[in-house]
Amino acid sequence: QVQVMESGGGSVQAGGTLRLSCEVSGYSTIPRCVGWFRQAPGEGREWVGNIVRSSGHTEYNDALKGRFTISQDNAKNTFYLDVNNLNPEDSALYYCAIRRDGGCVGLRTGKDNFWGQGTQVTVSS
Question: HEC string of the chain?
Fold first, then answer.
């Protein structure tokens, strides 16, 4: 059974930094891509970025580029989202996800994904 588990959220002051982690397990076929998303209260889910496991290639939402960095530790099946210079607008539930088919195409749409429970980030001014 596929499990996706995020951790590392918390309450931080504006300007601070957080590292979020995502562990993926139980997959019969190693997923080729992992994505990060976030959802603020009253808003839809927003794609943050993806990482390709084999190459480490990353891509990001243009609106968020610059303060978000996705990385991985393949040996641990763990993926990271570093967020710098946090501001209150970054307060959200942060999720990671993999496609049900383990692929990369369509991951950013949020459809047909396995999701974790999310980890809450709260930024105070």
Answer: CCEEEEECCEEEECCCCEEEEEEEECCCCCCCEEEEEEECCCCCEEEEEEEECCCCCEEECCCCCCCEEEEEEHHHCEEEEEECCCCHHHCEEEEEEEECCCCCCCHHHCCCEEECCCEEEEEEC
